[in-house]
């Protein structure tokens, strides 16, 4: 499972930081940051979800009001949103 985070879409509501500790607040930028992610292209970050964190990662995606977080299974099928 992996998470794709579109930081350009993020509006800084920070719901995700309450669901998965890999999302942290960047108050200076007014956006969340996905810790341990790699930038795939400008503003688009990707990170594997470790075993045991699947539920938290999915919840972070579900609570994002602007759908900046997408969760995929190992085969690349979109799970959230």
Q: What does this entry look like structurally?
A:
- The structure is a single chain.
- A five-stranded antiparallel beta sheet has the order 4-5-1-6-7.
- With 81 residues, the protein is mainly β.
- The protein starts with a strand and ends with a strand.
- It has one helix at 54-63, and strands at 2-6, 23-26, 31-34, 38-41, 44-48, 69-72, 78-80.
- Strand 6 and strand 7 form a beta hairpin.
- It has a single domain, classed as Alpha-Beta Plaits, CATH 3.30.70.
- The chain contains one helix and seven strands; from the N terminus they run E-E-E-E-E-H-E-E.
- The mean pLDDT is 97.
Features:
Alpha-Beta Plaits; Fe-S_cluster_ET; five-stranded antiparallel beta sheet; two-stranded antiparallel ribbon; metal-binding; iron-sulfur; 81 residues; globular; 1 helix; mainly beta; single chain
Distance, first to last CA: 14 Å
Which strand-content bin applies to the residues? 35-45%
- Rg on CA atoms, Å: 11 Å
The average pLDDT is 97
Form type: globular
- Percent of residues in helices: 10-25%
CATH class: Alpha Beta
Regions with little confidence, pLDDT below 50 for 5+ residues: none
The computed structural class is mainly beta
Q: Largest beta sheet: what is the strand line-up?
A: 4-5-1-6-7
